[in-house]
């Protein structure tokens, strides 16, 4: 399928399968996939390592200044801080449990947004997150808002973590998911919300093949291509 040089923005709650879907779409259309959540996770890891966030999620205001010297970027093997690949570390429950308070800080969002927008200039990207269609790329030509039932989402995240050798309980994962959903959708700056012009995809009972067929149908309809 000959897809034009558009930006595809995919938003939704945690563990709705956004990144799997976004990667699939990127591969199918030859687009670049960008995971905006990875940058929030990278800032969280950085804050933890620098001792700038405590167990009660209190964030030291010194983080703002330190961000100026943070070389957080995507490389071929994933997210990096300088030469160091942090891809595995940013997926742990330790980082997951503090990422939402970090992502609620306006100067952190400004730091991440600046990096994300640099990619938008070229088009042909699929970016997933919480505010891509509303704040980062409000002019994206195709916006998708993903949902799935809470049980399905918790089970997915649990399976993912177990596959990586972590040993959470399903209850812990569900609790973390609910907390993040709450903080993500109630924060003051760019809360998670569906853009008015986003198409909703509930994939609770869908296979990847069905998801792909769904977006192809959407693109054909929107851009009049075969
Ligand atoms: O998609 P994820 O679970 O890796 O995202 C990690 C956190 O980052 C999530 O709790 C909310 C935040 N996030 C955000 O606020 N805005 C985005 N565009 C992407 C992620």
Textual characterization of the structure:
The chain is of the alpha/beta class and 226 residues long. The chain has a single domain (7-219), classed as P-loop containing nucleotide triphosphate hydrolases (Rossmann fold, 3-Layer(aba) Sandwich), CATH 3.40.50.300. The protein is 49% helix and 15% strand. The chain contains nine helices and eight strands. The protein has helices at residues 18-29, 36-49, 62-67, 93-103, 106-120, 132-136, 150-163, 170-186, 208-223; strands at residues 7-12, 32-35, 72-75, 78-81, 84-85, 125-129, 142-147, 199-202. The strands form two sheets. A five-stranded parallel sheet has the order 2-6-1-7-8, with helices on both faces. Strand 3 and strand 4 form a beta hairpin. The chain is globular and about 55 Å long. The site of 2'-deoxycytidine-5'-monophosphate has 14 residues, from helix 2, helix 4 and helix 8.
Give the key terms.
three-stranded antiparallel sheet, globular, 226 residues, binds 2'-deoxycytidine-5'-monophosphate, five-stranded parallel sheet, 8 strands, alpha/beta, single chain, 9 helices
């Amino acid at each position: 399928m000959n897809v034009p040089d558009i930006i595809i923005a995919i938003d939704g709650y945690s563990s709705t399968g956004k990144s799997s879907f976004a990667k699939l779409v990127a591969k199918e259309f030859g687009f670049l996939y960008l995971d905006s959540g990875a940058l929030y996770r990278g800032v969280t890891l950085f804050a933890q390592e620098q001792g700038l966030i405590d167990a009660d999620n209190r964030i030291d205001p010194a983080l703002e200044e330190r961000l100026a010297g943070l070389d957080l970027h995507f490389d071929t093997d994933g997210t990096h801080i300088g030469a160091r690949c942090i891809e595995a570390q940013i997926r742990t429950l330790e980082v997951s449990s503090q990422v939402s308070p970090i992502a609620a800080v306006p100067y952190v969002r400004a730091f991440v947004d600046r990096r994300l927008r640099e990619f938008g200039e070229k088009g042909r990207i699929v970016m997933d997150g919480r505010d891509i269609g509303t704040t980062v790329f409000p002019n994206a030509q195709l916006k998708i808002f993903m949902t799935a039932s809470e049980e399905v989402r918790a089970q997915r995240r649990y399976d993912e973590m177990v596959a990586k050798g972590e040993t959470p309980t399903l209850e812990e994962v569900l609790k973390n998911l609910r907390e993040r959903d709450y903080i993500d959708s109630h924060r003051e700056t760019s809360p998670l919300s569906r853009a008015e012009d986003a198409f909703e995809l509930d994939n609770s009972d869908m296979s990847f093949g069905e998801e792909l067929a769904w977006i192809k149908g959407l693109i054909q309809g929107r851009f009049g291509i075969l």
